Amino acid sequence: MTRIQELSLAERAALSPAEARALFRAGQVLPTAGFSAGYAQANLLIVTKELAFDVLLFAQRNPKSCPILGVLEPGQVASELLAGGDIRTDVPQYFVYENGVKVAEPTDLNDYWRDDLVTFIIGCSFTFESALIENGISVAHIDQGVNVPMYKTTVRSASAGVMSGPMVVSMRPIPAHQVADAVRITSRYPAVHGAPVHIGNPGELGIADLGAPDFGDPVQIPEGYIPVFWACGVTPQAAVMESKPLLAIGHAPGHMLITDARDSQYQVP
Amino acid sequence: MTRIQELSLAERAALSPAEARALFRAGQVLPTAGFSAGYAQANLLIVTKELAFDVLLFAQRNPKSCPILGVLEPGQVASELLAGGDIRTDVPQYFVYENGVKVAEPTDLNDYWRDDLVTFIIGCSFTFESALIENGISVAHIDQGVNVPMYKTTVRSASAGVMSGPMVVSMRPIPAHQVADAVRITSRYPAVHGAPVHIGNPGELGIADLGAPDFGDPVQIPEGYIPVFWACGVTPQAAVMESKPLLAIGHAPGHMLITDARDSQYQVP
């Protein structure tokens, strides 16, 4: 089998979603930024039916951080978003939380699956990275071969039932003369976080050190580049950590579900 | 107290949302089209906590017919959408369903309220009628002083859990030369049903007789006018009728919650 780490950036971009999912299903682990160019990537949150209303309401009240692409019925593992696939195996790596504490980082959910689990598929900003690149805006974490840096902020999400927590953001450094373009381009993708929530001045978000992200990897920020922050689909996992439900499962941040939906499907004029 | 039926169209339009809600709270009943110009009106669906996830998922999967403006937590009766008001009294008339069958049409919910009831406030196409009128497109049911005609169609909503049913549409006859304008104007209001779902040819929607709407009143269609159909927030009530939950409560069609939100708040560029 192809060793995923040995693929060039171009080879990763050229994989079909089904090919990429097959490699992850076989147990290989890597952040998915740059994979399957042109296809939407997605965050995951899986909770029991009991908690599902609160999670869906949390998403409805926080559309920038939790844009819902699909919801699977209790126990359902297949979806047209991952044709022929299985939500329990097709993500590179999962985080399992019990009472808000991460207890495992498995590469599949075979030991954890229950028939009352409801899967939320949530938009991911990786989706608009192809559009940034096509427009001549380079994406630092892809170029540097690392995971995107993500930060918990001091901005609170709107709470819903038992779900409350901080907004999590992803950060991409952008040259000052391209920041407006980055806003314009990403605002056309409201279903995958859309326009930035904050530009420059990380201190206002309560981020003390860009070099120490809460999730993912730090990236080098070249002189003159502005840190630009987008709402991040790890936000519901941060709420899980605070709200401490008996069981919740997310993706490992940056290790997304690669869907069969085209990026362009989520683009508005 | 002002008798609501005696108010002129101009007087109805000039009422503040709080004034209009106070009249309805006092037990007066009238369709709300044309009231409180410039303020958003809303559909209602109230279900038990048990059914709430299925309803919210139904709304998420049918965004054109069920655009969510707000969701109240179980037992909650106040909302910033109706400042100082009470969801149990401020709608002119309610429909109460038991096992999918309408059993009462009360003007308040004092006899029906329970602490496990979850209220969904759903966008309503009355919201964009001010914009149509401002742009020189007259709205037949306002001019004719009747309720908007609404029809069950043969188009199925996407189902969610136990919730399934037909899409319901509202109809406004528009002069042929203004249909494109009506599309353009209403498409700017995606949170309140947005662009029409169908233009002309009611037979394709399974509507045999425009003169016999399933809800509301028939309107006269002048020669040369085209029937234009918008997705309607009565759609979840039609799903309740099919899905037969033990208890569900809606507004009487056309008798909406008048909110404090400005129409313009739901307008996109």
Please identify which CATH superfamily of the largest domain in chain A we are dealing with: PSTPO5379-like
Helix content bin of chain A: 10-25%
Give the CA-CA distance, first to last residue of chain A. Answer: 41 Å
Low-confidence stretches of chain A: none
Mean pLDDT of chain A: 93
CATH hierarchy: architecture of the largest domain in chain A: 3-Layer(aba) Sandwich
Index terms:
alpha+beta; 2 domains; 7 helices; globular; homodimer; 11 strands; 25% strand; PSTPO5379-like; seven-stranded antiparallel sheet; four-stranded antiparallel sheet; PSTPO5379-like fold; 269 residues
What does this structure look like?
- 2 copies of one chain form a homodimer.
- With 269 residues, the first copy, chain A, is an alpha+beta fold.
- Chain A folds into 2 domains: 135 residues, PSTPO5379-like, CATH 3.40.1640.10; 108 residues, PSTPO5379-like domain (PSTPO5379-like fold).
- The first copy, chain A, is 20% helix and 25% strand.
- Chain A has 7 helices and 11 strands.
- In chain A, strands 1, 2, 3, 4, 5, 10 and 11 form a 7-stranded antiparallel beta sheet that branches. A 4-stranded antiparallel beta sheet of chain A has the order 6-7-9-8, with helices on one face.
- In chain A, strand 3 and strand 4 form a beta hairpin.
- Chain A is globular and about 50 Å long.
